[in-house]
Specification:
mainly alpha; 434 Repressor (Amino-terminal Domain)
């Protein structure tokens, strides 16, 4: 598949794809999902070192929900309050609650920042927990 075909299939601009390929663009979760859907790969495949099973539409469509759930569960296991994490990360009051409900179209930079704060790999936030 050419870059032009991928951009067309993923409904993103060729310029956005170029920026992603050259790590110039702060990619958002929805863009990761769109590219994964176009390539027919699991969105986690972009971040994991191990091979994973063929994606189901649910894995792609539920990426935001998975991220939101994982952030909340990991924060709770570490016994960190939302207020403390919000203050430590310098987020707007209430924004962590929004993230934990549905992970709005977060950037990968913010996701990486949250993963670092929680002392996990970014892939731990992207992969559904059993």
């Amino acid at each position: 598949m050419t870059g032009d075909e991928l951009a067309l299939e993923a409904c993103i601009s060729r310029n956005t794809l170029y920026q992603i390929e050259n790590r110039q663009e702060n990619v958002r979760l929805d863009t990761v999902g769109a590219v994964a859907r176009a390539l027919k790969v699991d969105p986690c495949a972009f971040f994991l070192r191990d091979e994973i099973a063929f994606p189901t539409p649910g894995r792609i469509d539920n990426l935001r929900r998975t991220v939101a759930t994982n952030i909340r569960e990991i924060r709770e296991v570490r016994e960190i309050s939302q207020n403390r994490m919000t203050d430590d990360l310098g987020l707007a009051k209430g924004y962590l609650g929004v993230i934990e409900r549905n992970a709005p179209n977060l950037t990968l930079d913010l996701l990486d920042w949250i993963a670092s704060y929680l002392k996990v790999q970014m892939e731990d936030l992207l992969v559904p927990r059993d």
